[in-house]
Structures are given as structure tokens and as C-alpha cells.
Write a structure and sequence with these properties.
With 348 residues, the protein is an alpha/beta fold. The chain has 2 domains: 228 residues, FAD/NAD(P)-binding domain (3-Layer(bba) Sandwich), CATH 3.50.50.60; 93 residues, FAD/NAD(P)-binding domain (3-Layer(bba) Sandwich). The chain has 6 helices and 21 strands. Strands 3, 4, 5, 6, 7, 8 and 21 form a 7-stranded mixed β-sheet that branches. β19 and β20 form a beta hairpin. α1 packs parallel to α2 and α1 packs parallel to α6. The longest helix has 35 residues.
Length: 348
């Protein structure tokens, strides 16, 4: 699976996140340079860049990474095949070695606060347990949640036999019998990608439309189309066995691929008033950002899946590093402005 982030949610129902607890550092009482909200690849790499620049940085993380159900992370050179939780464990340790802090907790509110005496920005973050932290800048790296279609039994196999990303899971499901559960136009593109991995591919339309050209292209690639509605996912000895159609037909499949709807995790961040964008074809919602993760809100950056819903671990980590270096550069300018103002006041 891709990056860090939240839990899988079915329309109308929620599957609770897999929480991975870890040793938490104490929350500082003094104002810190940067608070990073979210401890996945983007957040940790952003914090790493800041800590190596001798910035005081605190990562607030709930321990609910998006890719927790996956046995291994793929598509990132050197670390390919590493369990996701192992990568996060190493990342937390490295940040601590440079003086950064990792605090286990959930953000209840995050909002601008009164500026400092010299006019520098301030933000207050309050955790669910009531603790508070003041920071000069904020990096939002909360990741996203996947919304699955309401098909009974589907969420039970999420991250194992129910997958969403051919690059994250493709090699592991090669040559298996795969079914595409269509959710919209993006599912057609999904079909081409998964056809690269297997000769045994079925496309379940689930009420979505296919034009004549797409049907011809499916036929040319030997992709079978089933238009009868899917009633439920069938398991056998805890393994995915296939799907049961509404007409009573059972269709055996070992893997189901779903183009999920994705939504940036925004709980507790309403006070920052970050702009949110809807993606086309009902594919999801993301935080809007520009170069290096900057946003319309002064002092707030966004990196990783919260703003780039398609980013895998490598891309998210790179985005976090870029945002972290940009934050440090602007803080360096702010520090110099403060020092100059103080020097001029003294000499004046």
C-alpha cells in the first residue's frame, strides 16, 4: 500500500485503524520551531531535514499508518520489501538521534495563535488528552484514508487480497485470478495495469458504464466483463475465494482490485482553514498546496498523501524532505529579520 495515514472506510461504515503504539517522547512546554502533524514517510522525512538543520521539531503521530495492513512496502529502492512498521520505527529513531521528538497522540485542534513580541507566527496544537504545544510553523502530513465500496466482506481482505495499487502489490499478485471491482472511470485504467500482471482478469462493472470502444479494447486483451451486480465477497478458510453475484452465481477470484476513493485526513485541522480540492471523477479530496508544500495559510505546509493522493512512500518522503528544507529556509530568514531588528534597535 502507499503511504501513511488513516483507516479504511466503507461507505456507510468505518473499519477501525490498526493502531501501532510506540514509546512516546515528552511534549515540550517551550515554543518549538516546527510541529509536524503525522508520522508517516512525509512527516518523518520532513522532521529529519529540520532536525538535521538544528531546528526544534516535534512530530505528533497517532500510530495509525495507512499501510499498516500490508506485509511489506514496495517500489522504494533499497527498502523494497521492508515491513511498513519497521520503516517507521527506523525513521523515528533517526529523528531522535538528531534531537527531534516523536509524541504519540491525536490532534484535537490546530489553529493560529497570537504572534510573538517580534511579530513571528505562532500556532497552538491541542491533543485529545488536553496537552498543548506552541510552534512557529506547521507541517501537515496526516496522509489519507481509503473509502471502499459497500460490498460485504470486502474490507476483511484489505491490504492482502483486496488491493488498490498495481505498483505496491502487483508483483505479489502476478498470475493470480484477479477481479476489478469498478468504482468509476479510473477503474478502466486499473484494468490495463492489472492486465499486465495476469492473463486471468475479470472486470465487474457494478453499474458503471463502458462505451463500445472500451469494450472492444477489453475484448482485444481478453478481459472478461461481468455486468451482474456483486452481492458479496466470499471467503474460504480466511482467504478470499471469489465473489457471489446477485443472481446466485459464484465467480472464483484470488485477488480483487479496487480504485478506492481517497480523502485527506483533516480531523482536528479545521482551525487552520486549509483549502481543500475535489478531484475529478469522484476520486477524492485533498489539501491544496503549491511549491514545496506551501499553502495559502502563512506558516503552514502540507506534504505526502494529504495533498498528493497518488504518492507512494518514496514520493511522499521526497515531498516531506522538500517541505522541511523550505520551512527551514524561511525560518532562517525570519531569524535574521529578528536579529537585524534587535541590532538596529540597540544601535538606534
Amino acid at each position: 500500500m502507499a503511504q501513511h495515514g488513516g483507516h479504511v472506510r466503507r461507505k456507510g461504515a468505518t473499519c477501525l485503524a490498526q493502531t501501532s503504539r510506540y514509546e512516546s517522547d515528552a511534549l515540550p512546554t517551550e515554543t518549538v520551531d516546527v510541529v509536524v502533524i503525522g508520522g508517516g514517510a512525509a512527516g518523518l522525512n520532513g522532521a529529519l531535514m529540520l532536525a538535521r538543520s538544528r531546528r526544534s521539531v516535534v512530530v505528533i503521530d497517532s500510530g495509525t499508518p495507512r499501510n499498516a495492513p500490508a506485509a511489506a512496502m514496495h517500489g522504494f529502492i533499497v527498502l523494497d520489501g521492508t515491513p511498513p512498521l519497521e520503516i517507521l520505527k527506523r525513521g523515528r529513531q533517526q529523528i531522535r538521534e538528531y534531537g527531534g521528538r516523536i509524541v504519540f497522540g491525536e490532534v484535537a485542534t490546530a489553529e493560529p495563535a497570537a504572534p510573538s513580541a517580534d511579530g513571528d507566527l505562532r500556532f497552538t496544537v491541542t491533543l485529545a488528552d488536553g496537552r498543548t504545544l506552541t510552534a512557529r510553523r506547521v507541517l501537515v502530513a496526516t496522509g489519507l484514508r481509503d473509502v471502499l465500496p459497500e460490498v460485504p466482506g470486502l474490507a476483511d481482505h484489505w491490504g492482502h487480497s483486496v488491493v488498490h495499487c498495481p505498483y505496491c502489490h502487483g508483483w505479489e499478485v502476478r498470475d493470480k485470478s484477479i477481479g476489478i471491482l469498478a468504482t468509476g472511470p479510473a477503474s478502466v485504467h486499473h484494468a490495463w495495469l492489472f492486465r499486465q500482471l495476469t492473463d486471468d482478469l475479470i472486470y465487474f462493472t457494478r453499474g458503471t458504464e463502458l462505451d463500445a470502444e472500451t469494450r472492444a479494447r477489453f475484448a482485444a486483451r481478453n478481459i472478461r466483463i461481468i455486468e451482474t451486480e456483486v452481492k458479496e465477497v466470499v471467503s474460504e478458510a480466511d482467504a478470499l475465494a471469489g465473489v457471489l453475484l446477485t443472481d446466485g452465481t459464484f465467480v472464483g477470484r484470488r485477488v480483487l482490485a479496487v480504485a478506492t476513493q481517497t480523502q485527506a485526513r483533516a480531523e482536528g485541522l479545521e482551525g487552520l482553514k486549509l483549502p481543500v480540492e475535489d478531484l475529478p471523477d469522484n476520486m477524492g479530496r485533498r489539501f491544496a498546496s503549491s511549491m514545496a508544500g506551501t499553502t495559502e495559510i502563512a506558516g503552514v505546509w502540507v506534504a505526502g498523501n494529504a495533498t498528493d493522493l497518488t504518492a507512494q512512500v518514496g514520493a511522499s518522503a521526497a515531498a516531506g524532505a522538500l517541505a522541511g528544507s523550505h520551512i527551514n529556509a524561511l525560518l532562517a530568514t525570519a531569524d535574521t529579520d529578528t536579529a537585524l531588528a534587535a541590532a538596529q534597535k540597540t544601535t538606534g
